[in-house]
Specification:
Blueprint lengths: L7 E4 L3 H12 L4 E4 L4 H8 L8 E2 L3 H6 L6 E4 L5 H10 L8 E4 L5 H12 L4 E8 L1 H7 L2 E6 L4 H11 L2 E2 L2 E2 L9 H30 L4 H13 L6 H11 L21 H12 L4 H14 L1 H10 L12 H18 L1
Parallel strand pairs: 1-2, 1-4, 2-3, 4-5, 5-6
Antiparallel strand pairs: 6-7, 8-9
Helix pairs in contact: 1-6, 5-8, 8-11, 8-12, 8-14, 9-10, 11-12
Length: 336
């Protein structure tokens, strides 16, 4: 048997990487942890991974020597150049049929390119979206693998074991060739951009048209979250956020600067939609809304010259309007 005892190696020990490793360990897989700065490996083994079956490696060679064949290596490193650099550092140590999995937020075009590049070298490539954040990575993410289908039988058991389950079925299945996994992850994030935008617009109607308090709005979102149409994580946290007060007892949300950033996946979805001629107008508008929100200085200047709409005095049936907003939000989510 020699040295080969690990089922899979994970490179990259930021929180997502660590949590994926701990999750795999919980499900009975032996994981080899590796990081370019090797002090992180020792720190991880002495702290979070203490008392587990997780093993460490201090070089790519050592990591590869500890893996059962075909070797499965999952990258949890920053998207872009670091992924290419890591792939190039491990290729010389691999054999035909070994598997490299990119679990980062990579552009699907990069996964298409890497898939082709590695195929020429006899290495199987899988580009996989991992959704659910740090908590998801630890206790059950949604996993979206795509790439070289020959790799799937070798990673299926690990991925479906660690994925979230809905009615016993894992939130993970094979999605298609080359960049399919990262394409689905990108669209999934784009949908989330749309969802967040329509939730914000619902909030604005409740606040500025109906003049409701933050506690009242929190109750409404909480009620919506209990119904079958709008039950979702985003609606749930919206309710929690609206109820959250600062130390002076005032709603915290009113003190947060109305300027949003973006990581790029929503923009990539809109770009792909333009390229393939698919009218995902809501996601496109959501990206533009974020761009507009980030122009805070310009908006402040403009507001001195341009006055917005005057206060709306609402006189109709309040409850009916709240129901209309709920249905509009539901319809928008379907569009999204």
């Amino acid at each position: 048997m020699g040295n080969e005892k690990a089922d899979i190696a994970v490179i990259g020990l930021a929180v997502m990487g660590q949590n994926v490793i701990l999750n795999m360990n919980d499900h009975g897989f032996v994981v080899c942890a590796y990081n370019r700065t090797t002090e992180k490996v020792d720190k991880f083994l002495q702290n979070e991974a203490k008392g587990t079956k997780i093993i460490g490696a201090h070089s790519v060679e050592e990591m590869v020597s500890k893996l059962k064949k075909p070797r499965r290596i999952m990258l949890m490193v920053q998207a872009g150049k670091p992924v290419d650099a890591t792939i190039d550092s491990i290729i010389p140590h691999l054999e035909t049929g070994d598997i490299i999995i990119d679990g980062g937020n990579s552009k699907y075009q990069d996964s298409q390119r890497r898939s082709k590049y590695l195929k020429e070298k006899g290495i199987l490539f899988v580009g996989t979206g991992v959704s659910g954040g740090e908590e998801g990575a630890r206790y059950g993410p949604s996993i979206m693998p795509g790439g070289d289908v020959e790799a799937w039988p070798h990673i299926k058991d690990i991925f479906q074991s660690i994925a979230a389950k809905v009615d016993g079925a894992p939130c993970c299945d094979w999605l298609g060739s080359d960049g399919a996994g990262h394409f689905v992850k990108m669209v999934h994030n784009g949908i989330e951009y749309g969802d967040m935008q329509v939730i914000c617009e619902s909030y604005q109607l409740l606040k500025d048209v109906l003049g409701l308090s933050h506690d009242e709005m929190s109750d409404i979102f909480s009620k919506w979250n209990k119904g079958k149409e709008l039950d979702s994580f985003l609606i749930e946290i919206t309710s929690d956020i609206l109820r959250y007060t600062d130390t002076d007892g005032k709603p915290l949300v009113t003190k947060i600067r109305d300027s949003a950033g973006q990581k790029g996946t929503g923009k990539w979805t809109a770009e792909a939609a333009l390229e393939y001629g698919i009218p995902v107008t809501l996601i496109g508008e959501s990206v533009f809304a974020r761009c507009l929100s980030s122009l805070k200085t310009e908006r402040s200047e403009a507001s001195k010259i341009l006055k917005g709409p005057s206060e709306v005095k609402f006189t109709s049936d309040k409850d009916k309007f709240i129901e209309d907003i709920k249905l509009a939000l539901y319809a928008s989510k379907i569009v999204s």
